[in-house]
Give the backbone structure.
Amino acid sequence: MEPITGVIITLNEERHIVACIESMKQVCSSIIVVDSCSGDRTRELAEKAGAKVVVQEYLGDGPQKNVGPDLSETPWVLSLDADERLTPEMVAEIKALNLADSPVPAYGFPRKNYIGSRWIRHSGWYPDVCVRLYDHRKVRWKDVRMHSFVETRDFRVLKGNIIHYSYRGIGELFRKADSYSNAIAKNMYQRGKRAGAMSPFLHGLSALLKHYVIKGGFLDGVDGMTVSISSAINSYLKYAKLLEFQRDPEILNKEDFSKVW
């Protein structure tokens, strides 16, 4: 099996980091944790679990995820978030790959997203394919500060899954809506995007219909409705906040746009 370097970016992930490292050890010969100045025991626990820890003040999603691969001694890199895990099926598939003679520079994984212990099967949350195993000499994470991805269309999707413990419960799902929407609104404002008076309502309604009807959220019962409403609230808030930046100079001047994320 071709050696693989595992890379994890972290910020206050003491709850997840050891389990993530142990999961990656099944297929990785070495693991690099790029930590964004955590205030908890993340770095200590990562080192005890056998990872190399690099401290890097957060650069934004894409730049931060490229730090580890640049330090890798192997061509192939497996990138996971601290709250993600490999399933046994995915481990077996990765071990069976001939990466030394791979026909593609990257592999995508279907991702099973959870709220608590509940797998959300529809609502746009599955299969949620993410490219996570790649030859960093050929492809890299896109140099954007939010919602980055490995820049390639030339990848093969494996059959196994990775597990994503997205939220501990519904409360966390909704609590994060404020910080997420604020970061996205600031990013949009910096890029010159502007909202109209009806934008919050129209985007919120569109998100609700998209996730509940088009993407089959209704098939997930109460959880599907919850996820759809959460998506609608996120969409509504980011445009409402963007509109607020445009209309209220006092609010705009209070925001620190040097820290968008």
About this structure: The helical segments are 17-25, 42-48, 61-71, 88-96, 170-190, 199-214, 221-247, 249-254.
